[in-house]
């Protein structure tokens, strides 16, 4: 098994081994956002894990902002109600 300490995978940098649980080997990684996460070795090597979860949060926040912007645009383009 090759030593992965110091290697960077997407946003995660491996800094120590975190032992094994069952048949799975875990590595402690620091994300570019600063968070520390224990990651399965095989998931890290296959690219299934790319960050601590911050990427998913960023994508969700961007989608939420995009939906809010579209909602505002629809409200601005809505004709004014006629007085009866």
| Mean pLDDT figure | 90
Q: Which overall shape is indicated by the principal axes computed on the Cα atoms?
A: rod-shaped
Number-wise, the strands total 4
Spatial strand order of the main sheet:
1-2-3-4
Question: What is the helix/strand order?
Answer: EEEEHH
- Percentage of residues in helical conformation: 25-40%
What class would the helix/strand composition place it in?
Answer: alpha+beta
Count helical runs: 2
Query: Can you tell me the residue ranges where pLDDT is under 50 for at least 5 consecutive residues?
Result: none
Strand content: 25-35%
Largest sheet: 4 strands, antiparallel
Distance between the termini: 79 Å
Query: What gyration radius follows from the Cα positions, in whole Å?
Result: 22 Å
What features would you highlight for this structure?
single chain; 84 residues; alpha+beta; four-stranded antiparallel sheet
Description:
With 84 residues, this protein is an alpha+beta fold. The protein has one domain. It is 36% helix and 30% strand. Strands 1-2-3-4 form a four-stranded antiparallel β-sheet. The radius of gyration is 22 Å and the shape is rod-shaped.
């Amino acid at each position: 098994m090759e030593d992965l300490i110091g290697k960077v995978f997407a946003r995660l940098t491996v800094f120590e081994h975190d032992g094994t649980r069952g048949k799975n080997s875990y590595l402690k990684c620091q994300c570019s956002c600063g968070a520390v996460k224990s990651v399965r070795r095989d998931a890290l090597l296959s690219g299934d894990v790319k960050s601590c979860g911050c990427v998913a949060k960023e994508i969700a926040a961007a989608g939420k902002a995009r939906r809010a912007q579209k909602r505002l645009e629809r409200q601005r383009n809505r004709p004014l109600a006629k007085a009866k």
